[in-house]
Amino acid sequence: MFQEPSPLARLTQEKRDQKEGAVISPDDEDFAVEDEPLLTARANAEDLGGAEPVQPSAGAVLRFLATAIAARAVVEIGTGCGTSGIWLLRGMRPGGVLTSVDTEPECQRLARKAYQQAGFPPNQARLILGRALDVLPRLSDGAYDLVFCDTDPAEYPEYLTAGLRLLRPGGIIVFDDVATAGDTAGDADSPAQAGARELTDMIRIDERLVPLLVPVADGVLAAVKR
Fold first, then answer.
1. Where in the sequence is the domain holding 62, given as residue range(s)?
2. Which of 13, 14, 33, 86 is deepest in the core (most CB within 10 A)?
3. What is the pLDDT of residue 93?
4. Tell me: the pLDDT tens digits for 188-222?
5. Residue 16 to residue 126: CA distance in whole angstroms
6. In this structure, are residues 182 and 192 in contact, taking their beta carbons and an 8 Å threshold?
7. What is the pLDDT of residue 5?
């Protein structure tokens, strides 16, 4: 039975179609060059076979947003092997602290090495091992400038609620992979797809938020907390 593609899926396909013949593609990597620390972190993630790290264009968005608000306190849900953390730290104010949560100790070990290779001192990254929905309630209300979520999209609605509590007014919450979550043949009703759809609906109707869907990589959804 044919199922009408979601608006997010249509946007992603349109973005891919537009790339051919464009003078500058929406994912033009000239604006998101990865150096040795980022390439090493990406290779480590591939070797572990876990979740794919953020694409360079999505990383550039994270760096831009962190720079734009001079972020000094950032929460990352899903450490991975350090790729997104490096992008965030490079946009944050000097001396800012990244608090990153993940359930995999080996990922966090490699992430710490990646941050060191990128030139960041140990005290700029606070890595917490555990399930984020258990860890986030222990963090202070309204104490963070940016919250980035790159984990199971099925849980994105819960992370939106938790993340907004952590953000100061004017802070930004960001979600990766919202356009292609679970986007495989016969998987349109997967928990990941359902979570991504619920997330976009929640952000769209929340009057506390100013949203923006950035059509790079697999879809980056951001919202400013008024």
1. 55-225
2. 86
3. 97
4. 679 999 999 999 999 999 999 999 999 999 899 99
5. 37
6. yes
7. 53
Q: How many Cβ atoms are within 10 Å of 132's Cβ, its own excluded?
A: 25
Q: Please state, in angstroms and rounded to a whole number, the distance separating the CA atoms of residues 146 and 223.
A: 10
pLDDT at 188 (0 to 100) = 63
Q: Are 56 and 84 in contact (CB under 8 A)?
A: no
* pLDDT-derived band at 14, boundaries 50, 70, 90: low
Q: Where are the alpha helices (DSSP H) in the chain?
A: 7-19, 36-48, 56-68, 83-91, 105-117, 132-135, 156-166, 191-205
- Give the predicted TM-score (pTM) of the model: 0.86
Please calculate the CA angle 121-73-208 and round it to the nearest 5 degrees: 160
CATH number, residue 107 = 3.40.50.150
Q: Is residue 198 assigned to a domain?
A: yes
Q: Is the residue at 169 inside a domain?
A: yes
Summarised one tens digit per residue, pLDDT across range 89-145 is: 999 999 999 999 999 999 999 999 999 999 999 999 999 999 999 999 999 999 999
Burial category of 168 from C-beta neighbours within 10 Å (exposed 0-12, middle 13-18, buried 19 and up): middle
One-letter amino acid identity for 98?
L
First to last CA, the chain: 42
3/87 Cα distance (integer angstroms):
37
The neighbouring-strand residues paired with 222 are: 174, 212
Which amino acid is present at 121? P
